[in-house]
Amino acid sequence: MRIIPAIDIIEGKCVRLTKGDYNTKKIYNENPLEVAQEFEANGIQYLHLVDLDGAKSSKIVNYKVLEEIASKTSLDIDFGGGIKSNEDVKIAFESGANQITGGSIAVKNPDILINWLSTYGSERIILGADCKNRRITTHGWMQTSEVDVVDFIKDYEEVGIKNVICTDVAKDGMLQGVSLDLYKEILSKTDINLIASGGVANMNDLFTLKEIGCEGAIIGKAIYEERISLKELQELC
C-alpha cells in the first residue's frame, strides 16, 4: 500500500481543515516546500497536494506551489482542487503534477473528465469521490449532491477510471478512524485502485487499510499533530 502524505494549500500556506470547514483552518507551515522536502528526506515517495483556494473557485489558484515542489523535490505528486477545465489540466501537468484528481467536474460535467481519460490515460487521472453520508460532495465539500458514492464510482469504472480517492468528509481531520465499512463495500463491488482518505489517526489505521486491500492511504492531520511520525512512515514504506 502506498503511503501518501497530504499538503493542503490556502493562500500559499500549508493548512489543515476539520470536516472540510474552511473556518477551522489551522496553518502548520508558511512554506509548503519545506514540508514536502521533509517528507522526501524521510523516504516518502508520494504527495497528495490540494489547492483549497482552487476547490472553492472555478480554476486552479495555487499552481505556483505545485511548480515549486515539483521542481525542487522528486516526489510523485497527485494534484487536485479547482481542476474544472482543459486549461486547468494543462496547467497542472505543465507545473509538474504526475496525476490530477477530478472531483466536482466529475459530477457537474462528466464528459470533460471522460475526455481527460482518453487524452491522458487512466494512470494520470484520478476520480475524487468525496462524500458525506454516502452522498457525493463538490466545490470544496461545500455542496452535497444526491449521488451515492458507490454508484458514482461504479459508473466511472465502466468508462475507464482505475484510480479513486475516496474521502468521507465526516471523518476528515477528526483523528477518529477511517470509514472501513464504506471502503470494504467499495472494494467488494468494484475493481478500482482505492486510495483511502480521511480519519487516519494512527499506525493501526494504516495497517487495517492495507489489510482490506486499499492501494493507497492519504495521511494529513495525524502527521501534523504528531500522532504518526515520519520515522514510522519511513519504516512502513
Task: Sum this structure up briefly.
This protein has 237 residues and is of the alpha/beta class.
Describe this structure in words.
By secondary structure, this protein is an alpha/beta fold. The protein is 38% helix and 30% strand. The chain is globular, with a radius of gyration of 16 Å.
From the structure above, extract its key features:
alpha/beta; 12 strands; 237 residues; 8-stranded parallel beta barrel; globular
Figure out the total of helices.
11
| Overall helicity | 25-40%
Adjacency order of strands in the biggest sheet: 1-4-5-6-7-10-11-12
Distance from first to last alpha carbon: 9 Å
Instruction: Write down how many β-strands occur, each being a DSSP E stretch of 2 or more residues.
Output: 12
Structure class: alpha/beta
Write the layout of secondary structure elements.
Layout: E1 2-10, E2 13-18, E3 21-29, H1 32-41, E4 46-51, H2 52-56, H3 63-72, E5 76-80, H4 86-94, E6 99-102, H5 104-108, H6 110-120, E7 125-132, E8 135-138, E9 143-148, H7 149-158, E10 163-168, H8 180-189, E11 193-197, H9 203-212, E12 216-219, H10 221-224, H11 230-236
Helix pairs in contact: 1-3
